[in-house]
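Lecture notes, continued. The same structure-token format from the folding unit now serves as the input rather than the output. Read the line below as a description of shape only.
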């Protein structure tokens, strides 16, 4: 059955995701929280859905009574701004124009791109890096250009876009859970 083949392949892909970069991402998100920075997330298509979902999980799953909340925003969630920049400038500027407006020192960008070659994602990473911000890339395939631009990169070892996007979803869930657990473990 094809469903069984897909799920077996996905399980193998998840098992092969390198853990050291994941630990580095977890630590970068923790440090962003400690300095009261914002975790800014972007992506296209399925990666846009993962960006929105990740921002939601960071805002909700990390809640602990008596603790400061996590600042997280998905640049994919303001459709009017995205269409305005696409129409008036260029689609490759939809994320960078938003980060230019939103960025504060201490913020971190999580850029999600299955191929690692989305020009709008790359422009945001370039701009944030030029500000000295922490940049994180979640990608697949061979990593694309994103692997050479982001400071911390997790490359899902698959050339199947649905598997890459599923793995990114699982990675984002694991990071939100881990951040919530670290916040809960901190003394008040």
């Amino acid at each position: 059955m094809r469903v069984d083949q897909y799920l077996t392949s996905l399980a193998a892909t998840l098992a092969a995701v390198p853990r050291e970069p994941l630990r580095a991402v977890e630590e970068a998100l923790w440090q962003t929280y400690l300095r009261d920075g914002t975790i800014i997330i972007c992506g296209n298509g399925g990666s846009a859905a993962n960006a929105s979902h990740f921002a939601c999980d960071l805002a909700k799953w990390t809640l602990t009574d008596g603790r400061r909340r996590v600042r997280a925003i998905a640049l994919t969630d303001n459709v009017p701004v995205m269409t305005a920049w696409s129409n008036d400038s260029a689609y490759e500027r939809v994320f960078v124009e938003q980060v230019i407006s939103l960025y504060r020192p201490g913020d971190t960008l999580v850029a999600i791109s299955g191929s690692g070659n989305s020009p709008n994602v790359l422009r945001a990473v370039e701009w944030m890096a030029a500000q000295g911000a922490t940049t994180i890339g979640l990608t697949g395939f061979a990593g694309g250009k994103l692997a050479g631009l982001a400071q911390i990169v997790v490359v899902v070892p698959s050339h199947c876009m649905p598997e890459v996007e599923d793995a990114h979803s699982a990675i984002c869930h694991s990071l939100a859970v881990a951040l919530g657990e670290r916040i809960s473990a901190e003394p008040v």
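Point for the exam: The radius of gyration is 16 Å.
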